[in-house]
């Protein structure tokens, strides 16, 4: 049985009144009918998850120096909107674009001050990237998951800081070296250097 399938013994009949709703239906720990419906929808969308991803960040065309700088450090790459877009394109080829999307969502959450908006965005991030039912679930260790589950009782703009750092480190150590050797990066480097020398 895969982790995305629920055991028949845990499924409760659908009902409009759920006296034992344990978690306001935003996390993955209850087997209420609302979560069953969401799981079916998520399972159906797994194959097409990349088609529904929002557009990349708006940014200016990078300079040759900027593109070369991305090879010097992962921090330089991640601080550049154009760099994040190219890296995200690479992650999509490796079916791990959700790592960048999660990181960006956490960055956006940190800019929020309104308590209601923070609660709403935190719950969306949880559902999209932390819940084991989500097709875009990111890979986190159990310690970080426990910290998030505790913090979700009273979400703040820094609820996902530990998880964001873990995903940043994962992208740095795992995906970044392959990105630098990828056709996507080498082709961009060649194209932008060529167009620069012609002008």
UniProtKB/TrEMBL annotation:
Pfam families listed in its UniProt record: RGS
Signal peptide residue numbers: none
Predominant cellular place of this UniProt entry's protein: cytoplasm
Subcellular location: Cytoplasm; Membrane; Nucleus
Superkingdom field: Eukaryota
InterPro entries hit by this protein: RGS, RGS_sf, RGS_subdom1/3, RGS_subdomain_2
Keyword field: Cytoplasm, Glycoprotein, Lipoprotein, Membrane, Nucleus, Palmitate, Signal transduction inhibitor, Ubl conjugation
Biological process, per Gene Ontology: G protein-coupled receptor signaling pathway; negative regulation of signal transduction
Membrane topology according to the record: Lipid-anchor
Ranges for domain RGS: 73-189
Gene3D superfamilies recorded: 1.10.196.10, Regulator of G-protein Signalling 4, domain 2 (1.10.167.10)
A GO cellular-component term linked to this record: nucleus
Assembly notes: Forms a complex with G(alpha)z/i2 subunits and mu-opioid receptors; the formation of this complex results in mu-opioid receptor desensitization. Interacts with OPRM1.
Function: Inhibits signal transduction by increasing the GTPase activity of G protein alpha subunits thereby driving them into their inactive GDP-bound form. Binds selectively to G(z)-alpha and G(alpha)-i2 subunits, accelerates their GTPase activity and regulates their signaling activities. The G(z)-alpha activity is inhibited by the phosphorylation and palmitoylation of the G-protein. Negatively regulates mu-opioid receptor-mediated activation of the G-proteins.
Name listed for the protein in its UniProt record: Regulator of G-protein signaling 20
Gene, per the UniProt record: Rgs19
């Amino acid at each position: 049985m895969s982790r995305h399938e629920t055991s028949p013994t845990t499924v409760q009949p659908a009902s409009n009144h759920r006296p034992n709703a344990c978690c306001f239906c935003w996390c993955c720990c209850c087997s209420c009918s609302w979560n069953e419906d969401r799981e079916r929808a998520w399972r159906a969308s797994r194959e097409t998850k990349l088609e529904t991803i929002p557009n990349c960040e708006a940014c200016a065309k990078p300079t040759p120096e900027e593109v070369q700088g991305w090879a010097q450090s992962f921090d330089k790459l991640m601080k550049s909107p154009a760099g994040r877009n190219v890296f995200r394109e690479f992650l999509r080829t490796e079916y791990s674009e959700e790592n960048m999307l999660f990181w960006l969502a956490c960055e956006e959450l940190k800019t929020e001050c309104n308590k209601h908006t923070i609660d709403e965005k935190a719950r969306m991030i949880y559902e999209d990237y932390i819940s084991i039912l989500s097709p875009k679930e990111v890979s986190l260790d159990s310690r970080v998951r426990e910290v998030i589950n505790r913090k979700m009782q009273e979400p703040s703009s820094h609820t996902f800081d530990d998880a964001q750092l873990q995903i940043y480190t994962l992208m740095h150590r795992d995906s970044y070296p392959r990105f630098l050797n990828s056709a996507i990066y080498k082709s961009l480097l060649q194209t932008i250097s060529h167009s620069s020398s012609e002008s």
